[in-house]
Fold this protein.
Amino acid sequence: MSRKHTAALVGNPNSGKSALFNALTGARQKIANYAGVTVERKAGRMTLPSGEPVELLDLPGSYSFDAASPDEAVTRDVVKGTFEGEAVPDVLVLVLDAANLEQHLVFAQEVLELGRPTVVALNMVDLAERDGLTLDPEALSEALGVPVIPTVAVRRRGINELAAAIAEAETHADEEAHRRWHLTLPERRLSAKHMAKGATLSKSTRHTIENGVDRILLNPWLGPVILFGLLFVIFQAVFAWATPFADALEGGVGVLTDGVTGALAPSLFRDFLTEGVLAGVGSVVVFLPQIIILFAFILLMEASGYMARAAFLMDRLMASVGLSGKSFIPLLSSFACAIPGIMATRSIADPKDRLTTILIAPLMTCSARLPVYAVIIAAVIPQTTVGPGIGLQGLVLFALYIAGIVGAIIVALVLRRTVTKGAASGFIMELPRYQLPRIKDLAIGLWQRAWVFLRRAGTIIFVATIALWVLLSFPKAEPGESQLDASFAGSVADAIHPVLEPIGFNREMSLALVPAMAAREVAVSALATTYAVDAEDEDLAAEGVTSQIAALWSLPTALAFLAWFVFAPQCLSTIAVARRETNGWKWPIVMVAYLFALAWLAAGATYWIAVGLGL
């Protein structure tokens, strides 16, 4: 080739474009933002059957060239060749959901009317066949006037044939464009409904069955009850199912600590391993089972098709505070991490809707808070039941998640009545088909999330914990003096503590909030390291952080710490992403300020009420 050729994947959301992109490009991918806009540019290199390379773009999902969001505007401009700095694609790969042809063909007609070399990937034909649909790609190809290749991206079915069709379209690009421009208007404007019927040979009653299920799950009264009941079960499981595995990991850390203590003579290096690495990082790693169980439920809900229904159910609630169900998807993503949640707001067309969603995303309880919640709840909340199959610890965890959601709703209501005032935008969402999740996909998803957690433990948490250990260990205390009082870290705690003492925090808690700005989980490792370094009781020092908190904290103090983490600002990475997405520091500063104020008031109110009740 005399120049670099490009192809672009276009289509509706949920058509399987990303899976097809991964299948065509493998690991040869590069992700960045388009110049001047916060919309992701995902590009990769695919190889044609001839061995020639082609740059493949995965453009944001779109319903129309009449753009309703920044994502759709980028897709329109790139496809039409009007996006500055981006070459017009030589070939368009139009991705259609095989089981939802009528809807997807509406946008397909807009793409085909451009008269550009186009190949259709009729994707997810396996799910269509499972649903009882028998499709005729040749009939659809004749109706559209372009090649139609049946594909199953996740299983790499049809990938070679699609690559060959792309190569053919490139070879005859000029000829193909000239031929399609001269199609008669009736040929190019067949209705989506007629084309879909012409391509469908038969279908079963499965859709009727799914509609019956939706009548229950999407019922405006019964649906929310089912949703919150499911969430309640999830948080019960996080404690009930994870406890044996977490205890085993904690025992393993204890064995390692005893081994290091017995193998090495007393020294600064031994203290570094036992008090810094094992007590600090180890105290976070033991909560890996809770993380895995939480994400197992989330992945099951996503893969089965139920998560989109949850967004639909929440649309009415979101509208009541001036937002739409479109905001629910980014907020839902924020339960895993606020960073992808904030980035997901790019699909929201209305700028005030988008800003409001960004500002409340940190109130969603991200997975980084789970170790903090778990260690405090295990330390101060009895492991008792309050009803058949209802554990008190799981009930408290559920209440903390609900508190974050309620807080987000209240803040959104205030924002939409003041600084981001405006009417709620409309909400259109395609409900995916129900399907049984593939065990392999679930296993890969869980491994990826477990690896992210362990990588954070080995990088951010490790560095922050070791830095705190150094500050706690020097200068050395004089005989009879507390190491915390003598250390540099003690001076930091003394500077912060006067602000937090009125809400029930002790010095160790105040100190833990500083490294926790790097990552929420560091609060646990910071407390573990602080108590390991400063403990005067050797028997207590040998215990885990949970036992130390149980022995040293009052119930009002522990509850105040939990209330703080419901509302406290997210990690520094989240603040940096908020700055990038809002193009300045104004709104991130507003976000951090109101979250700190909410956290202080919530922790204070919790502590004062608990003390007043004599807890």
